[in-house]
Amino acid sequence: FRYERDAERAVTDLNTRWFDRKPIYAELSPVTDFKEASCRQYELGECMRSGFCNFMHIKTLSPEYKKRLRERRKRFVFIKNIKMMMID
């Protein structure tokens, strides 16, 4: 998150939700640089531990998918602004 208040709001929101009939327990991490916590073997395609690995397996987004997400976000903001103008 860019702003701490947004992260806090997301955690508060998540802690009121359920998944598979179980409550979600979210918390903020004080870590700001996750590079040290990521699995080097996974980055090289060599980690055999899978779900038992103690390090994070970070999946990167393809440039095409990032572009799609940015375009969807622009559209969402545009539609939201139009709706706000209609309310006023």
From TrEMBL:
PROSITE patterns given in the database record: ZF_C3H1
UniProt keywords, alphabetically: Metal-binding, Repeat, Zinc, Zinc-finger
Coiled-coil residue spans: none
Record GO terms (molecular function): RNA binding; zinc ion binding
Biological processes per GO annotation: mRNA splicing, via spliceosome
Keyword Transcription regulation tagged: no
Signal peptide interval: none
UniProt-recorded name of the protein: C3H1-type domain-containing protein
Organism: Adineta steineri
